[in-house]
Target: Homoserine dehydrogenase
Amino acid sequence: MEAISIGLLGLGTVGSGVVKIIESHQDKLMHQVGCPVEVKKVLVKNLSKERAVEVDSNILTTNPDDIIKNPDIDVVIEVMGGLEETKEYLQTAISHHKHIVTANKDLMAVYGPELLSAASENGCDLFYEASVAGGIPILRGLVDGLASDRITKMMGIVNGTTNFILTKMSKEGSAYEDVLKEAQDLGYAESDPTADVEGLDAARKMAILSTLGFSMNIDLDDVKVEGITDITEEDLQYAEQLGYTMKLIGIAHREGEKVEVSVQPTLLPESHPLAGVQDEYNAVYVYGEAVGETMFYGPGAGSLPTATAVVSDVVGVMKNMRLGVNGKSAVTPQYDKKLKDGSEIFSKYFLRLHVSDEVGVFANITTIFSDHHVSFEKILQVPVKEKIAEIVLVTHQASLDDYETILLSLRDLEAVEEIKSSYRVEGGARR
Ligand SMILES: NC(=O)c1ccc[n+]([C@@H]2O[C@H](COP(=O)([O-])OP(=O)(O)OC[C@H]3O[C@@H](n4cnc5c(N)ncnc54)[C@H](OP(=O)(O)O)[C@@H]3O)[C@@H](O)[C@H]2O)c1
Model:
């Protein structure tokens, strides 16, 4: 039985995990796909770097053509990261009829549709399970497990770094900058954490999830993004006092034919299934019309968890090879994209204001809300310093347009010293 030959682009955190799993699970792979799996060539930048896994130095190369144009390679595993250059490598590999497995969400969020159609035209598979939520099999869960259902809502904690930071801030009452530094020291946050803390990494994953879950091409630009950098200890204390937990949540919601996709700090009631997802863990809550509530939970990153998803994709490629159906399993989007506008996006909101501590101020604020038919669910008022009071309120459901108009009117009100913070508040599942 001839071995399946793998060409690995990258031998860092995920690449070394892939080599370990292929070596240590060879028996299981053999049993599932009926032939051995062999890593034949590995692309790296630096040939003399020390590696987390032992590999024969003869299989290392710095020339991508040794893999992407090599007639002996069946499957190219891309775990090097990057965008434009990486896309070119994969296009070349596809034109040389290689199947592709990638963990690269940046690439799939931007060039996914283009690469998938190139792969399908060339009779190649392109699988990317590890690109969203690392070791959690969420993409197969959506595409296969829930294939018969109509998914209306997905909510994801899909960035481990920000979940680690928010968990620590909430538990320990620490400031954002201090916890970020600790996360960097522990290796949970990169030295440049921008893509994580500004929500961009989560937005890429939500673009991939909503494209699959709603069967329409959602671009990265369609995802409204807000990060966690402005969240303060005070916000988290008030959230707890009101019975909420703060999380960076990706929300994808479909009503009728229209969808909204966003990533933003969100207050969840403590009873919400996602509220208990702690530290660097990831979870995706999926609501289907027939199945109801489901939740996928697990490690969203890390060498072996992510490599598990990558190698499982390789098994998928090999099963397709045996059946002779490579390139036929990608489902093209069924619907044209229709995005909701601000009058169609509804949510509750948390708002924290500093106002002059004078008679009539609260009545003026209430009037602005009631002029837009928005009422309050919860209100706290506390004096913070001489002549200044802090008002913290949670609204009932309001449209995004109404809420933004209310914020503008509040800013114009002389008695409002400062709008300290404002966050979306989620209830239970809203179909
Ligand atoms: N880390 C995770 O937990 C995780 C989870 C999910 C998805 N991912 C995704 O998986 C991919 C890899 O992540 P990683 O954490 O494994 O990255 P990493 O540790 O930085 O490893 C990248 C590897 O690719 C090689 N490489 C990078 N650019 C190259 C180039 N231009 N030419 C040749 N080799 C190049 C590097 O070579 P040298 O070693 O010689 O420098 C290194 O071996 C990324 O797309 C990431 O978003 C990672």
